[in-house]
Design a protein that fits this description.
- 0% of the residues are buried.
- It is elongated, with a radius of gyration of 37 Å.
- Helices cover 82% and strands 0% of the residues.
- The protein has one domain (16-106).
- With 114 residues, it is mainly α.
- It has three helices and no strands.
């Protein structure tokens, strides 16, 4: 490693190779700077788009939430008990009419193990 350093030309030497290498390094520095700035701009743009989508989704959620809450409340108080009653009646019917049990199993009303 020391041999390589000793053989390298001095930084102040005016050789053509050193100037060419300096130009290449300067070009690479510019290219890296441009790439990093582009990455910064793309990342910022992505974050802005994601923020807008989040705000839009939050606004939609705030708009829909009262309607959904009302629907859930209605289901829990009105439709849920009616459906449970219907299921209970189907199971009671299947107990008195065993030939109807495969229909309930096929439609997922009762489990085959019961």
């Amino acid at each position: 490693m020391n041999d390589i350093l000793e053989q390298a030309p001095a930084p102040n030497s005016g050789s053509e190779e050193v100037r060419e290498l300096r130009n290449v390094v300067a070009g690479l520095k510019k290219l890296l700077t441009i790439a990093l700035l582009l990455l910064l701009v793309l990342t910022g743009s992505y974050n802005l788009i994601a923020m807008r989508l989040m705000l839009s989704a939050r606004k939609d959620l705030n708009t829909v939430q009262p309607k959904v809450s009302a629907m859930v409340q209605q289901y829990e108080t009105v439709q849920g008990p009616i459906i449970q009653s219907f299921y209970s009646n189907l199971i009671m019917y299947a107990k008195s009419h065993p030939q109807f049990t495969p229909v309930l199993i096929q439609n997922g009303v009762i489990n085959p193990g019961k």
